[in-house]
Design a protein that fits this description.
Elements lengths: L1 H12 L7 H14 L44 E6 L12 E11 L2 E11 L2 H15 L2 E3 L10 E8 L2 E2 L5 E2 L2 E10 L2 E9 L4 H19 L2
Antiparallel strand pairs: 1-2, 2-3, 3-9, 4-5, 5-8, 6-7, 8-9
Helix pairs in contact: 1-2
Length: 219
C-alpha cells in the first residue's frame, strides 16, 4: 500500500512526468503481489489454571509422634520415655478414637505421666473423654483469662511432701502440674512432676503443643 501511495503523490507533484497507463497498472500489480495472502494465525488461548488444593490427612494418619516433644520444650533434665499407643484404663470405654499417643517423662528420680494426645472422630466422644479425665484426675475448668490454651481446658496442682524413712533415708516429694485441653478433634493431657513448682514449664510446653496441633489437624 505504501508503494501505491507514493505513486499517487508523485503523479501530483510531477504532473509534467505523467506515467503511462501501463506503468500505473504494473505498479498496482506489484503492490497487490506484495500484500499477504492470508491472515496471521491467531495466538493460542491460555486456559486459567486453578490453585492446587491440599487433601486433608486422615486423623489416623496424622504424625503425632513428631510433635510430642521437641528440643527446647522442657528443661534439659527431662528425659522422654517410651511412646505408647494405648488408652489408659479409665478411657477404655471411649469410642470413635482415631489415634492415641502417650509418652512419659523422667527427671532424676521423678517420673511423670508426661503427655497424651487422643484424636477423636466426633466432637461428642471428645467431650465425653474430656469429662472422664477431669473427674478421674480431679481437674477443674479454667477460663481464658487464666490461661489461653486450647478451646476448653482444665487444671490441677498436686503437691507431695518429702517422706523421711527410718535410717535417715528420704524420699523427696515434689509438685505435679496437670493440664488438659482440647483443640479441634484432639484432646491433650499433660502431667509434669518435678521437685519445684513448674506452672510456667507446663503451660509453655502446652502452648507449643497446641500450636503444632492446630497446624496438623485444624483445617
Amino acid at each position: 500500500m505504501k508503494i501505491l501511495f507514493l505513486l499517487f503523490i508523485s503523479m501530483i507533484i510531477l504532473p509534467a512526468c505523467t506515467p503511462s497507463q501501463e506503468a500505473i497498472q504494473d505498479a498496482i500489480n506489484q503492490t497487490q503481489a506484495a500484500l499477504p495472502t492470508s491472515l496471521p494465525t491467531a495466538l493460542p488461548i491460555i486456559q486459567p489454571t486453578t490453585a492446587p488444593t491440599s487433601t486433608p490427612v486422615s486423623l489416623s494418619e496424622v504424625d503425632l509422634e513428631s510433635i510430642l516433644l521437641l528440643p527446647g520444650d522442657l528443661p534439659t533434665e527431662f528425659v522422654a520415655q517410651q511412646i505408647k499407643s494405648n488408652l489408659p484404663d479409665y478411657l477404655k470405654s471411649s469410642s470413635n478414637v482415631a489415634q492415641v499417643k502417650r509418652m512419659g517423662f523422667r527427671t532424676v528420680d521423678f517420673a511423670s505421666d508426661g503427655i497424651m494426645i487422643i484424636l477423636f472422630n466426633t466432637s461428642e466422644d471428645l467431650e465425653k473423654a474430656y469429662q472422664i479425665i477431669k473427674k478421674e484426675e480431679g481437674l477443674h475448668d479454667v477460663s481464658k483469662s487464666f490461661i489461653d490454651i486450647g478451646e476448653i481446658s482444665g487444671y490441677a496442682v498436686t503437691s507431695i511432701s518429702d517422706l523421711y524413712l527410718v535410717g535417715g533415708k528420704t524420699i523427696y516429694g515434689g509438685t505435679s502440674i496437670q493440664f488438659i485441653f482440647t483443640r479441634c478433634n484432639a484432646l491433650v493431657y499433660i502431667d509434669i512432676f518435678s521437685r519445684a513448682n513448674n506452672n510456667e514449664t507446663t503451660f509453655t510446653y502446652a502452648q507449643r503443643v497446641d500450636e503444632r496441633l492446630s497446624k496438623l489437624i485444624c483445617h
